[in-house]
Structure formats: C-alpha cells, structure tokens
Amino acid sequence: MTSTFEIAVFAGDGIGPEITDPTVKILQALSDRASGYTLQFTDAAAGAAHYAKTGESLPSASMETARRSDAILLSAMGLPDVRYADGTEISPQIDLRKALTLFAGVRPVTVRAGQSTPLNMPKGKEIDFVLIRESTEGLFYSQGHGEVTENEARETLLITRDISEKLFRFTFELANQRKAQGRGPGRVTCVDKANVFRAFAFFRDIFDAEAAKHPNLTADHAYVDATALWMVQKPWEFDVLVTENMFGDILSDLGAGLMGGLGLAPSADIGLDNAVFQPCHGSAPDIAGQGVANPFAMILSAAMMLDWLGIKHDNAEMAADGKRLREAVEAVVAEGKVLTRDLGGTAGTAEAATAVQAQLVLEVA
Ligand code: ATP
Predict the structure, then answer these.
(1) What residues does ligand 1 touch, defined as CB less than 6 Å away?
(2) CA within 13 Å, CB half, 134
(3) pLDDT single digits (tens) 33-69
(4) pTM to 2 decimals?
(5) Could you tell me the residue ranges of all domains in the chain?
(6) Which listed CATH number (3.40.718.10, 3.90.1150.10, 3.40.50.970, 3.40.190.10) goes with 109-261?
(7) Helix or strand or coil: residue 155?
(8) What is the residue with the minimal CA distance to atom 1 of ligand 1?
(9) Residue 145 — pLDDT band, cuts 50, 70, 90?
(10) What is the distance in A from the centroid of ligand 1 to the CA of 233?
C-alpha cells in the first residue's frame, strides 16, 4: 500500500528559493519512483520578503499548513534590511520551533574519506557523529526577556524536567537507531557544565535517569569546554552528543566548520508531533539571485526528512531513499569534482544538484 505524506515547503528568503527548487525536484523524482510512499508538497509563505510585502512574517494559513503536514522542509529566512518595528530580526523558523515545541535540534557532523576538512585526519578515520541541541529553552528561553539597566544586564537560563526528559528519551532512541544502522557504537554523551552550575547538575541527573533505562548503550558526560577541544582533537570518537540550547548553538557551528562550512551542514528540529528540516546556514543575501548557492545542506536536510519519516511511519523504502540521498551528496563532496564556490569549487547550484542526481541515477523533470 502506498502512503501519502504532505510536506510543507517554506522556500523563504535570499538563496532559499534557489536551493529549495532543485531539492523538491529530487524529492519528487524519488517519490515518483517509489512504490511504497508518495510525497505531496504544499508551498507555505513566510519570511522577511513576505513581511515586507504583507506585514506578516508567518501567516496563520502557513502555520496551519505546517501544523497539519507530516514534515516541514524549510530553507532559510531573514534579510538584514527587513526588521520588525522594534529592530529585531524576522525569524519565523524560531517561531515555528516554539509554537510546535521542537525541542530536539539534530545536527549531524560527517566528514567522509576524501572530503576536505580543516583537520588533519588520521588515515582511515571518518567523522560521523550527531549533536543534539535542546531548542526551546536553556539560555535562549531568555530571548526578548533580558533585563538591562544602566549598570547591569541579566539573562536567565531555564531547564525544565519535562523538556529534558523528552530530549533525553529522543537522544537515546536516536543512538539506538544509529547503532542498528551500523552508524555508531551506541554511545551518548551529555555535554554540560555541571561542575559549575546547579542547573547543569539538574540536567545531568535527568540524563542519568534516562541512561539507566538503556543498558545496551554507553552513557557518559563531558564538560562543554573539553568537548570543544575534543571536537578538534578527536571528533571521530563521538557518536551522539546532547546539550543545552546555547552550548549547542556554538558547538554546532564548530561541527559545521569541521565539515568544511555551513554549506554542508543540515539540521532537523524535532518535537513529538512535528519536525522541521532545514540547512544550518542563513539566507545568504550577498549571493542571492546569482545561481551560485550551495544546495548540499538543503538536500542533506531533505535526506534527514526521508529518514525521519521512514522510521516514524515504519516505511523502509522511504528510510532507504533518505540514506541513498545522503550518501549521494557525501559521494559528490568526497569526490571533489563538482563543488560550489564556498567549498573551493566553481560549480553553480544547478550543476551541484545535477551531480547528486547523477550519483543517484535519477531522472529529474
Ligand atoms: P543567519 O543569521 O540567518 O543564520 P548568517 O549571518 O549566519 O545568517 P548566512 O546567510 O548563513 O549568514 O551567510 C554567511 C556567509 O556564508 C555568507 O557569506 C554567505 O554567502 C555564505 N553562505 C551561506 N549559505 C551558503 C550556501 N548555501 N552556499 C554558499 N554560500 C553560503
């Protein structure tokens, strides 16, 4: 039986539409060839350009589409010159994260043999770990609520039992899935600063309680400062890392740096009912409209979406297509013949997307 899945597509601002177009075409081609699933795409308007035109950054109809869809594919949003009246940036992706309680920010970091990286990789080593960033509270809870007087500024970090329990349950499940797929040894590391802050000791205690339910997995702890060091010195030893929002924000950019830049960094923000898949980079207005944007992070995000939908709905064909799509991008990047400018190559967006299709042996309309 073929199951149909609705995908809400937010093409967004800047380079957003340019990288969304080839990504949706690849997904459509995979869906056309599949016998066990069909993807149906619904465009949803949102973002800075939409705000400039209409005065709304995330219209309720788009929010409704996002809420009822099976998954949300979002490119990039925000433009430096378009701001709300109070001067803050337009970021509907953060509004979606809050409204849909997408607590688990999943940031994979992979460096395959042959791929360019600023690290000196020992021969035969590859990097393949996942950083999970809590995405609804932590220090970001304070966003917009900071107290500033002439002589003092205060921002408050919040860690709740409820979200932490959900976060760690998700994290250990992911480690189990990676172990079953042969992608990791089944090791989960809680990244915190429990030696200094009580809030992180609380975070760690909740982590330990979840860890006790998974005797088949290894659980350990690391301080965030040491983790930053090890991400540079021996990142191939990590499997699944889980951390607070602000720490995760910083470490995920370090992870993107290991991969050779933001243009290769996909992400997912996952809750109990909804999930958003989007590249880590922004709307890159400096190169928008030139056809030179790197589509790989967006395509890798789409691959994560297929993988997540496939596992959630027990659809092995869709999960396998997600894996194939990820491996196709990884192969193109490792081969190094077709790379966009941000990766040191000369290819444009279309050429880069075509190389992925060729790797998949996929005819795209
Ligand atoms: P945001 O705050 O919205 O995340 P940002 O300030 O981090 O955005 P980006 O929009 O991510 O900035 O762009 C940072 C730099 O990286 C820019 O020079 C941009 O051109 C480049 N860049 C970002 N994404 C891509 C991409 N997909 N392809 C090529 N270059 C990119």
Answers:
(1) 15, 78, 262-263, 281-284, 286-287, 293-294, 297, 340, 342
(2) 31
(3) 999 999 999 999 999 999 999 999 999 999 999 999 9
(4) 0.94
(5) 1-100+273-365, 109-261
(6) 3.40.718.10
(7) coil
(8) 282
(9) confident
(10) 26
